[in-house]
Automatic annotation (TrEMBL):
Belongs to the class-V pyridoxal-phosphate-dependent aminotransferase family. Csd subfamily. Residues 26-395 form the Aminotransferase class V domain. Pfam families: Aminotran_5. Its cofactor is pyridoxal 5'-phosphate. One of its GO terms (biological process) is cysteine metabolic process. This is Cysteine desulfurase. Gene3D superfamilies: Aspartate Aminotransferase, domain 1, Type I PLP-dependent aspartate aminotransferase-like (Major domain). PANTHER family: CYSTEINE DESULFURASE, CYSTEINE DESULFURASE 1, CHLOROPLASTIC. The keyword Lyase applies. Catalyzes the removal of elemental sulfur and selenium atoms from L-cysteine, L-cystine, L-selenocysteine, and L-selenocystine to produce L-alanine.
Amino acid sequence: KDMYNITSIRSEFPILSRQVYGKPLIYLDNGATTQKPLCVLDAMRHEYLNANANVHRGVHYLSQKATDLHEAARTTVRKFINAQSDNEIIFTRGTTEGINLIASSFCEGFMQPGDEVIISTMEHHSNIVPWQLMAARHGIAIRVIPMDDNGELILDEMDQLFTSRTKLVSVMQVSNVLGTVNPIKEIVRRAHLHGVPVLVDGAQSVPHFKVDVQDLDCDFFTFSGHKAYGPTGVGVVYGKEEWLEKLPPYQGGGEMIATVSFEKTTFAELPFKFEAGTPDYVATHGLATALDFLSSLGMDNIQRHEQELTRYATEQLKTIDGMRIFGHSIDKDAVISFLVGDIHHLDMGTLLDRLGIAVRTGHHCAQPLMARLGISGTVRASFGLYNTREEVDAFVAGVRRVSAMF
Ligand code: PMP
């Protein structure tokens, strides 16, 4: 407990001390993006001021400095998710690009018209639309794992979806709407029984608890830096080396080639084969700094803190008349989606904003999930490592006050 000193943690995030509309900011939109600690901003500023040059091809001092930082970031990411090799870590712009990369390369390399991908009811649009694009371009079909009323995937029904045409399963580890923590290890185990690889959308898991890709045994994993206290515009795809070796490149350009002539081009070794163009090498350094910051706090401590907040907030919200919380999985992460009576989510969000409370409203890029729940949207509070019990109290008081206005 002593290690987790919330006051000193919050001092790393000056934005948390600002006011909005003359009220102290209560930032509960961490599922959309997190605030950045000073150490991340300092690291990026330091690189721009002292070591800025394009990476990989430069013989000069600054280019080598920047390259060292960029490649050190790859190693930090590799250790953070416990991948086996730096070759398994591809830098992208975020989760969305990561899923598009795998969808595009995997379909091109391993899917024929009529082949199938399995996703789930609760997926973010970024794990639905890329497959629909592939369906239109390559004639693949999409199968969907159903969900029960607690907001848990029905794995026995998933088992029924596998056919001889199933080529890939792509599911989220944590729902950005319900907070459900899906049993990825078990999903991977079952998929592998059918010889089918699994892609995991880790956008909402990496910031909240320890992820070990070797323990999960997933074949691909992707996440965004900006949801894990790192900068915007950078993310990661992990892939087992044996898979990444076999997949065709995603984009073409500089950095990803070995030799180019107009007759024939050969591609670079991993991981560069998947990294066309100048990467955001300052952002990768910022991301590594953020992951080091998380490690210094301890992912287990962060998880314990956020779970306490989530449990406390859930109990308190339930005392409000007409409260409906969505998602009752026993294994639930730092997200609470709710509605109160007939109050529209947008009205609730707008009025909470006037009290200085930042929440998200709407469909949360999960319209098929909203359809399953029979609603058009929710109000979502999502917690980060710096939120406090006092903030939860103010948030609940805010929801109570707004509810009383209707
Ligand atoms: N998947 C999930 C579960 C998410 O919550 C998000 C972000 N809301 C994404 C994917 C997309 O992430 P990004 O916009 O950073 O690419």
